[in-house]
Structure formats: structure tokens, C-alpha cells
From TrEMBL, chains A, B:
Molecular function GO labels: heme binding; molybdenum ion binding; molybdopterin cofactor binding; sulfite oxidase activity
InterPro entries: Ig_E-set, MoCF_OxRdtse_dimer, Mopterin_OxRdtase_euk, OxRdtase_Mopterin-bd_dom, OxRdtase_Mopterin-bd_sf
GO biological process: one example: sulfur compound metabolic process
Record's keyword annotation contains Oxidoreductase: yes
Domain Moybdenum cofactor oxidoreductase dimerisation: 240-358
Domain Oxidoreductase molybdopterin-binding residue range list: 44-215
Needed cofactors: Mo-molybdopterin
Species for this entry: Methylobacterium oryzae CBMB20
Superkingdom of this protein's organism: Bacteria
Keyword list, A-Z: Metal-binding, Molybdenum, Oxidoreductase
Protein name, as recorded: Sulfite oxidase
């Protein structure tokens, strides 16, 4: 295994403490399953160092009392499950919003996303073993080993999502144990939801009748209207970001590329939260005309991204390439970053635009 | 019961043969449940006249052979179910697309939508009684008594949706038997899907391994890219419209209203297919600034629309009011009708804009 420092050197690092980094887009587009070392990293505190041999997961249910499970217990008691799913930061493509007005947080390009085979056990199997039964308005709260402003990282998801087949406690990514920066020894994987709801370095799971009161859940990762500012924001009024909206990005050619005239392959990804991507339109003229890309999607992986590709014949001059996706509900994306701007810079999902110059 | 002619006189009639009509928007917004007589009517052939006493529904399963059910059989054998759901035509708001370029079909304003309490039996209960079990890539095909270009009306839906709790064989609308124009004596109600998939005047249901090959399913109600025309369209390449996209409309004040200066109530609806509407933004200046409307949504009715209301203080002059909704995935609508234009005029779902003049 490479060292963390070696892996950091391969990424675009937005910050070291906490460590936040994304891959260059051409490398992101090189493989449907993102190698763990190319996978974006979003952390909110220092990376915890955990001994897998002594690690325990505690599962609390108010009625039945706690379970206390080692990695060996989890593997022995529950069937192994693998889900191919895309993980995406709520701040992916935030950089595009900065052209409208300042936003808080790291200026992620379109690389705060990746897809992996996640292997572990179904969270629902563990919860059912703890005596949990489906119930409206119940929430599954996670607490982790990383510390954010003096408190353990904590978030929650609705019980229905926790019991869904696709939601895992994962030990492995693409067939290998999780890397330290991806949550070793165990993390939640909540496909379709923003990455913030898939906590790494898990230590406790609690079923309760209210969302987590941890600031990460109660205050952060909320979507606000465009007229709300850091000063006026009331977290209780913001929308809790869970399922992510329709999005698409151009990974090749890169922004500002100088190309030869003639056939230019244009490639990228698209993703639709809990829906399917059914069409991807690509424009060589800033959205005045569109052509349809060829789609590549893994069968049986409804929560994984769709890769797309098209060859455009670009004449000499400056061009704005643009992409927009359509989902299975016939929904498409807004055209301008202004249309989704919010002061936190979340859910940046307007047409992705890349200017290139053809010689 | 009023006569059909009396009910027609209350609606904006786009055509009499087939009969297509929608209510004025202010009356649509007057009640969360749309009175049957105010409910839009979309038909593709003449209205069938059916004797409820002799009506039979045949349910075919290739393995188990047919069931043949009277209304009394359906009522006796299966528990009654009521679902509050919105029905919407795929062509709702088509008129807004005509400003971009010509489109085929009737020029529906924003009234090709309505909400009702639908009462009947669960389609899933009937299918299970016929021996149907869940299976990937199976389809439930419907055939009806109305005739379109010499063939019975026919469409299909995926089996998973047919087995879902919300999908009904409905006999009643808002507590009264279906009106003739709404499918008497029985229709399908497939909440969240375009109205075309909720056939009226049912006569046969077949479970099969392919979608219906009826032209209504195979050729019509497909979403095409903006560069495709009636001449170049290949139905096999279009997206089959099922779940409807996020949409919102201003119902009051009406387009072109002349208002007094001061507080102006602005009211309308929003709907998000199989998701929830979480926010509605309203603009008094064509989208340069936005305020958030108050939302009204019926508890326990995930497939029903959301009503919204806001009071704007409009100064004298001409104003473009606009509305856009946000769904539970943080998705919003495109700004311009150009962004969703297609030659069939389906899924018109850009910001709804209404020009008014304040004295």
C-alpha cells in the first residue's frame, strides 16, 4: 500500500488539516470504478488512526439495549454484501458558483465524486439483529472517531434509507480494506445521498425518534435560498441535504485546452441521485445546439454514475462546451450557476461549461 | 349529476372530438382536491358509454389463465383503498413552449392537472390474486374501451409500479362514482406518472415480458431532444414518459392582470413526481430576486401536489412574476422554455412566468 503522502501527491489538495482533495478530471474519467487512491477525500477533522483488532461498533436501541460488535462479529454474523455506488460531496462543483458571488468552503472542481465497489454488511441486517423494526419518523444516528470542533462527527439518516438494500456498513472499497482516509476500518455507505451522510471511522449507531443533534446534521449541509447569507441563515429553515440532484460534468478535454481542429472526443459523467440518467446532451456552442452522447452504465448499479462520450467536430476558434443530463422523470438541469447559487455553495448542478480553443 | 354539456361549459375546451379541456387556473387553485367537474379531461377517442352492470375486467396472466371480474367481484374480493393523488397530462403547460417554436398537440395552459381522492382497490392486490409475483422486466399492459385510430387505447407500466401501494383500480373520485369523461366505471390511477399511463374505461390487464406494443405506448408520449423533428423522430429512441418532472405554476393573479398597487397575493401549485416539494421561490422581477412561499401539503399524500402562497408588494409598472420549485433532492427547474423545448411539447417545466401590470 502506498503512503498517504504518496497518495496526496497525486491529488489536487484543497487542504491538509482537515485533509480535502480531489483527482484531476481526466484521471477520474479513466475508469468506471475509481481507484481508492484517486478517490476524492473530504474530512472535517484529523484522520483517526484506528486499530482494527480492538475496534468496536456499538449499536444502541432504546428498547433492547446495546450491541457491541467487533469487525469479526460483523463478518461472522451477517452476510457479506457488495454495492457499486457513487459517492459525491454536497460541495462538488462549488468552484462554478464562485463566478456568481463568494461562497464558503473549499472550491471543489467536478472531482469531488467517485464510484467504487463497496463491500461490507447491510446496515439493515445489523439493525434488524438489534431488534429495529421499520417505523415512520425514526432516524439512524451515526457517531464517528473523527473530531470536529471538539465533538465527534455525527449525522443521521431516515430509518427507511438505513433499512434499504443499498445501504452498507462497508469494510472494503474495490476489494481492498478501506484506506485510512476513506474510513478504515468501517464506514457507512448511503448510496444516492450526499457524502456527508456516509460517515467514516464509525463507532456508534443509535436508532432514535429525531435526527442527530450533532452540528454536522443540525447546522451544516443545509440548502438555503439565494437571498440568505451566513448572517441571516437559520439552520432550522434550511433543507437537509440527503439525495443529490441531477448533475453532469465534462472531464475531457480539460478547461482551457488548446486543441487541434477536427474530431474531438468529449467525455464525462452524469448522475441522478436516486433516479437513472436517460439522456446526456452535449453542446459545442455554449448551449445553442445539442447532440446526444453515448451512455455507459453498469447493469444492476442504480446508484452508480453514468459515463458518457461523444465526438464533436470543432472548427478553429474559441468554443464553450456544455453538458446537461436528463433523468428518468424527464427532469433536466438549470442552465446557469446563478440558478442554483447559495452562500454555502452546495448542490452546484447547472450545465457544466468548459471553454476550449481550437487552433 | 350535471350533464357533460354543462360541465364542458365550465372549462376551457381545446377540442370536442376527442374531448380535451382544462379549468381556469384560479378555479383550479380554489381547492386542494379538484372537484370532478373542474378536473382536466384528456381523451384520445370518443367517450365510451359503458353499462356498469355488465362491465367486466379481464386480467390475463400467461401462466395462470384469465380472471374475469365484475365491479361487484372487485369490491367483494379486495379491500377498498383510497389514495389522494395528483393526475397530470404530459402536455401540461405546453402553451409556454410555443413561444420558442411550434409544437404539436393541444396548447394546454397550466391547468392539465388536478388532485383527487381516488377510491377503488389496489392493482397489486388484484395482480397477486391472479398469481403475479414481482419480477424484473415485467410489464402490466392495460387495454381500454376507447378507440384511437381504429385500435383500443393501450399502454403499460412497469410491474414494480403496478404492485406499489399507491397504484389503484379506481371506481370513485372524491367519493362519487367516476364521471363518464374520467373513466366510468373503472380506471387505473398510477400516481406520479403522466396521465397517459392511467387509462380510463379499462377492460383488460395483461402481465407480459415487454411493454405494450400499442402505438400509444410504443410511439406516442416519448420525450425527444430539441434537434429531433416529427420527420426525424425514431420512437424507439425517445424516452418513455412515466414519472413527471418537477414543475410549478402561478394560478393567481392571471396572466395579463391589471392590479392595484400594494400587497398582491400570488398563489399556485408545485409538484415533484415521486419526490417532495421542499421549497417554492417566487419572484416579482422576472427571476432577479426571489422570496419563499408558504407551502400547504396534505399529510400522508406523497403523490399529491403542494399548494403555495405568498404576498408580494408590487410597485406601479409592468412586472414579470415567476415561480420555481425545489424538490427533496435539491433539484430545481430550468429557467427558460428553450431549455426543455421538444417538438411534441411534452414536460414543459421551466419557470412559470406571468406578466402583470400594476396601476
Amino acid at each position: 500500500m502506498s503512503s498517504l503522502a504518496e497518495r496526496m501527491a497525486r491529488l489536487i489538495v484543497h487542504g491538509e488539516h482537515p485533509y480535502n482533495a480531489e483527482p484531476p478530471l481526466s484521471r477520474l474519467r479513466a475508469s468506471y470504478r475509481t481507484p481508492a487512491g484517486d478517490f476524492y477525500v473530504r474530512s472535517h477533522g484529523d484522520l483517526p488512526e484506528i486499530d482494527a483488532a480492538t475496534w468496536r461498533l456499538s449499536v444502541d436501541d432504546k428498547l433492547l439495549g446495546p450491541l457491541d460488535l467487533s469487525l469479526a462479529d460483523l463478518r461472522a454474523r451477517f452476510p457479506e454484501a457488495t454495492v457499486t455506488a457513487t459517492m459525491q460531496c454536497a460541495g462538488n462543483r462549488r468552484a462554478d458558483m464562485r463566478a456568481v458571488a463568494p461562497v464558503s468552503g473549499d472550491p471543489w472542481d467536478a472531482g469531488a465524486i467517485g464510484t467504487a465497489d463497496w463491500t461490507g454488511v447491510r446496515l439493515g441486517d445489523v439493525l434488524r439483529a438489534a431488534g429495529v423494526t421499520p417505523g415512520a419518523d425514526l432516524h439512524v444516528a451515526f457517531e464517528s472517531h473523527d473530531v470536529v470542533e471538539g465533538r465527534p462527527y455525527g449525522v443521521s439518516i431516515p430509518l427507511a434509507k438505513a433499512l434499504a438494500d443499498e445501504t452498507l456498513l462497508a469494510f472494503a472499497m474495490n476489494g481492498a480494506p478501506l484506506l485510512p482516509e476513506h474510513g478504515f476500518p468501517a464506514r457507512a455507505v448511503v448510496p444516492g445521498f450526499a457524502g456527508v451522510r456516509s460517515p467514516k471511522w464509525l463507532r456508534r449507531i443509535t436508532v432514535q425518534d429525531h435526527p442527530s443533534d450533532n452540528p454536522m446534521q443540525a447546522d451544516d449541509y443545509k440548502l438555503f435560498p439565494p437571498d440568505v447569507t451566513a448572517e441571516t441563515a437559520d439552520p432550522a429553515e434550511g433543507h437537509t441535504i440527503e439525495t443529490m440532484p441531477l448533475n453532469a460534468a465534462i472531464c475531457e478535454p480539460p478547461r482551457g485546452a488548446r486543441l487541434e481542429a477536427g474530431d474531438t472526443p468529449v467525455r464525462g459523467y452524469a448522475i441522478a441521485g436516486d433516479r437513472a440518467v436517460v439522456r446526456v446532451d452535449v453542446s459545442g456552442d455554449g448551449g445553442r445546439s445539442w447532440r446526444q452522447a453515448t451512455l455507459e452504465h453498469e447493469a444492476g448499479a442504480p446508484f452508480a454514475w453514468t459515463f458518457w462520450e461523444i465526438v464533436l467536430d470543432l472548427p478553429p476558434g474559441e468554443h464553450e462546451l456544455a453538458v446537461r443530463a436528463w433523468d428518468s422523470a424527464g427532469q433536466t438541469q438549470p442552465a446557469l450557476p446563478d440558478d442554483t447559487w447559495n452562500f454555502k455553495g452546495y448542490l452546484s448542478a447547472s450545465w457544466h461549461r468548459v471553454r476550449v480553443e481550437v487552433a
